[in-house]
Amino acid sequence: MRAVVTxxxxxxxxxxxxxPEPGPGEVRIAVAAAGVNPVDMATRDGYLHASVVPAGTTLxxxxxxxxxxxxxxxxxxxxxxxxxxxxxxxDPTTPLGTYAxxxxxxxxxxxxxxxxxxxxxxxSIPLNILTADQALxxxxxxxxxxxxGAAGGVGGYAVALAAHRGWTVTALxxxxxREFVLNAGAASAIGTxxxxxxxxxxxxxxxxxxxxxxxxxxxxxYVGVLPxxxxxxxxxxxxxxxxxxxxxxxxxxxLRLVSNGxxxxxxxxxxxxxxxxxxxxxxxxxxxxxxxxxxx
Length: 296
Prior knowledge:
- The chain has nine helices and 16 strands.
- The longest helix is centred in the middle third of the chain and has 13 residues, at 153-165.
- Helix 4 (126-136) crosses helix 5 (153-165).
- It has 296 residues and is of the alpha/beta class.
- It folds into two domains: 2-125 and 265-295, Medium-chain alcohol dehydrogenases, catalytic domain (Quinone Oxidoreductase, Chain A, domain 1, Alpha-Beta Complex); 128-241, 3-Layer(aba) Sandwich (Rossmann fold), CATH 3.40.50.
- The strands form three sheets. Strands 3, 5, 6, 7, 8, 15 and 16 form a seven-stranded mixed β-sheet that branches. A six-stranded parallel β-sheet has the order 11-10-9-12-13-14, covered by helices on one side. Strands 2-1-4 form a three-stranded antiparallel β-sheet, with no helix packed on it.
- The radius of gyration is 19 Å and the shape is globular.
């Protein structure tokens, strides 16, 4: 089978691999689509090789996947072969990612796709929605919330999920994205942090750092999405960053919010796996909305 890998030197390579076999507690997925996320480009350009794995290590690319369960480990009773599923790769340091024809994941990393949700489109969801959801878990008691980068991949989900939880959300977004963020559930939209005022919490999906923490009230909460880039806490503000983890049970709950229209899915476009580099280039275009997807 085909798989796209990298050695962290800025290139993508196609590798011919054996079809992986699921072990205990695992399922094999025939890939219908894989999401293209900023972390994939960072991996390609050496982010993990700089601090996590040795130089030259071959890493598989891709975290998000949607497809059909093709085989299961001996102890797996659900999901059954033939089930449409979506999942998040738990470990980005393995030699096989979701940019592939088949992928094996732990059963606890996948969730069944609800009726009415397109299989390919579902591949755009896991990493971003789980990041947004787990970031909100760090934001403290429900109150007023500023979401930076509110029209982006994580920010768009954060606005919708926060509003669903009862937060009064202010979205930091471009004028061209105002309609989207208001429809997603924001009570108001602003164009600069200078217009922000003071909030109980900030979810900094745009990674503005010190600029964003300045908008948090004394003793409030700052939540970032880049653990290495947490700003220095000030004025009693707690500062944390989400490190996303796979959670198939919670993902199943979140997919129901997608399928009932509470949360909008946005797909920027699709390209075949053969054009993985072009998809990454498209995904890196400033202002892109939604996720690019790779299909077989």
